[in-house]
Specification:
Number of domains: 1
Helix content: 25-40%
Strand content: 15-25%
Shape: globular
Order of helices and strands: EEHEEEHE
Structural class: alpha+beta
Number of strands: 6
Largest sheet: 6 strands, antiparallel
Strand order of the largest sheet: 2-1-6-3-4-5
Low-confidence stretches: 1-16
Oligomer: single chain
Distance between the termini: 50 Å
Number of helices: 2
């Protein structure tokens, strides 16, 4: 079986230093503290998701609840036209959060990733 490959170098993305990510996780209105590794890990994935939709920015927010799934880049909603892409976003975020204690998928979840600390206020 032949598998097609994608040349990752063809995707134009700026060099991003992941240790500059500041990631905030809010579940049902409560902020969940994340250690440095978890902030970087979730930050990398969320930034990559936005990048896959063609949106490279310094601030990305994912919001998911029982009725709505949305992703925002620099405060502007990224249009997700295909239901498959929406489901992929939901399952990716669910997988990211599944090992975290106290985070339940049925809750309202907001993840904000910033490239600079100033855009999200005090941690």
């Amino acid at each position: 079986m032949k598998v097609d490959t994608i040349n990752v170098n063809m995707i134009s993305q700026p060099s991003v230093k992941s240790d500059k990510f500041k990631t905030a996780l809010i579940c049902k209105g409560n902020r969940i503290e994340l250690n440095s590794f978890t902030q970087k890990y979730i930050g990398n994935v969320v930034m990559a998701i936005a990048g896959s939709f063609g949106n490279i920015s310094n601030l990305v927010t994912v919001h998911i609840d029982e009725n709505f799934t949305g992703i925002y880049s620099d405060g502007k909603k990224i249009v997700i036209e295909k239901e498959f892409a929406r489901q992929l976003l939901q399952s990716t975020v669910k997988g990211l959060l599944s090992p975290l204690n106290g985070v339940f998928w049925e809750q309202e979840i907001t993840i904000t990733v910033s490239m600079n600390d100033d855009s999200m206020g005090a941690a």
